[in-house]
Amino acid sequence: MAIWDSSTKWRQGHLLPKQALSELGLLTGDDSESTIAIVISHDCDLSQPPDTEPMIEIIVGRKVGKVDGNYTFAKNTRRLHLECSSGSTLILIDISATAKMAVPKNSLLQHDPDSKVRLSYEELVILQRWLVARYQRSAFADEFNRRLRSTGLESGLKAISAKSGKYLRAVFLDAKASATLTSRQSPGGIFLDFAGDFQDSIRQGLPIYKVTGGAGYVWAESHDADGRGRLRFFATDPSALSSPPTSGTTSSPPPASTPDPWKDCQSQDTETRLVGCTKVIEAKGPDRIRLADAFDGRCSAYNQKQQYRPALSDCKSAIDLNPKYSYAYANLGSTYLGLNDSSNALSALNKAVALKSNFLWSRLNRAKALEASGSNEDAVKDYEYALLIDPANQQASEGVARLIAPSSSAQPPEFCVWDANEQAQYIAVSAAGSSATGIEGAISTISSTAQTYKTKLNSVIAKIDDLNREKDTSDRKRALIIGSTDERKRAINDVQRLTEAASESHAKVDSISEKVSEQESKLAAAEASNTGRTKEKQERLKELRQEVTKLRANRTESEGRTLRL
Q1: Dihedral sign from CA coordinates of 137, 141, 142, 144
Q2: Fewest C-beta in 10 Å: which of 189, 195, 326, 436?
């Protein structure tokens, strides 16, 4: 039974069940078994009560045995062919734009959508576009349509779409070349078709090929159902041919291409990038941003060549030109790592992460710097974040495995139960031939040993609990790392949001601190000059003290919020 609110089972693209079709009188004639009806009302309208949206729009169609490519992908605004699934069976549907109708919403109150036949999401989108195109589409001029018919392009397109339209979303026309071929003129170059007649090929929708490239041998064969046909072959060098010049003009060779230093500066090849960026730098670049990019590109190239001293200079130049350049800070951190300066590397990489928290190499290099400085716990966090960005990254995987591997020196000393048993047995034997005082001493010793057992047992249980908690945490992190792309994106976005919030809080603390200092200076100056203590000065002094107190409270609150972030 349908419920007309946001929880309704009915959605756009759902098909009506046979019983509903029968009650609506849509199953008539010999074609009744192939009749279908699709809901085309929007989901928001379906969720409204009948007093707001009393009708549901549907479109009636029929099942067909074959798809015509002219009607797929909403190419024709009057007819549409769709594919939908019924279990493992593919059902083909033909609908017409004139078969839309509205039925009372309450007529479907007792029915649920057909659960056996469904449109895929892609087909639903095609249906939506087709419905919209009926009212919003381009109108071609009569002359354009006339030329399509006179050149044979219209019949050719229909022939192509009928055969292969299922795979075609759009067709791009070179109407000028087709018109030239149809008029038996040459548009320049060598063309080849199967029929031996360009006009006939265009009418039949057969391909026409333009031969391009260098010297070679061309072979073409076509035959009919009886095996009779034609064989054509020739040798040519299309590159030596040119289009026939228009009257009054002479052909001239194309200008030689000049190298583009900026394009070379962005190359993946280290040497090419080094040369290209150097040329941009020597030319002073078109602007500060491009010049900063060139210094950063050359810094990266020097890093790859392990020439860290010139890299250091270039990265610093890039940052001087563009202080907010996260990639330059990331490359600067790599340079310091190459120079075994983990302290400066960490400082640069902290800045890189603050400017762009989800850049993989900033995280990886900062993890290396943290590991080098002994901050393994923080290093693991960066390695794990890098795995969120790229779950297949080998460096990050090895870093996590290396830093969370159990250390033999960190394990508590094992408690030898055998030695303790021997000790208890020795005490019991000795006590058997001893006086009462000796027995009391033995009991005391046994009690002490039992207490030792209990202490060590509690220690082992606590250790097991810690290991279980670590395992649970590790499992959760691993599940997040190997989870879906959407889950990783959400985690990365959360970190980005928190990073931005932390930066904003830091900026607010700095701003409030400056205002506190400014007001404290004013207060000190006012107190120093308040010799006469007039009523006006006393009021001003009181206001300044209140303002300073308020600013200090705001600073404390902002600092606390920053610490929490």
Answers
A1: negative
A2: 436
* Domain span including residue 460: 410-481
Cα separations (Å) of 296 from 51, 352, 381? 65, 13, 27
Non-local (6+) Cβ contacts of 230 within 8 A are 196, 221, 222, 223
Residues 199 and 188: their CA atoms lie apart, in Å, by: 17
First vs last Cα of the chain: how many Å apart? 50
What confidence category does residue 179 fall into, taking pLDDT thresholds of 50, 70 and 90? low
Alpha-carbon distance of 158 to 436, in angstroms, equals 115
What's the confidence (pLDDT) of residue 358? 80
Contacts of 194 (CB under 8 A, 6+ apart): 201, 206, 207, 220, 222
**Residue pair 131/98 in contact by the 8 Å Cβ criterion:** no
Query: Based on the domain organization, do 121 and 170 belong to the same domain?
Result: no
418 falls within a domain: yes
3-state helix, strand, coil in the chain (%, to 5): 60, 10, 30
Residue 554, C-beta contacts closer than 8 angstroms, at least 6 positions apart: 512
Give me the pLDDT at residue 178, please: 54
Helices (H), 305-358: 308-321, 326-338, 342-355
pLDDT band per the 50, 70, 90 thresholds, residue 224:
low
Q: Using the predicted structure, report yes or no on whether residue 335 has a pLDDT greater than 90.
A: yes
**Pairing mode of beta strands 89-104, 229-236:** unpaired
Same domain membership, residue 128 and residue 175: no
Q: Encoding tokens for residue 375?
A: 């901050």
Q: 44 and 114: one domain?
A: yes
Backbone φ, ψ for residue 268 (5° rounding): -75, -20
pLDDT tens-digit map of 53-100: 999 999 999 999 888 888 888 888 899 998 887 777 888 899 999 999
Residue 410's pLDDT band, with cuts at 50, 70 and 90, is very low
| Total number of domains in the chain | 4
Q: Which of 436, 452, 481 is the last residue of a domain?
A: 481
Fill in the DSSP letter of residue 538. H
pLDDT at 103: 92
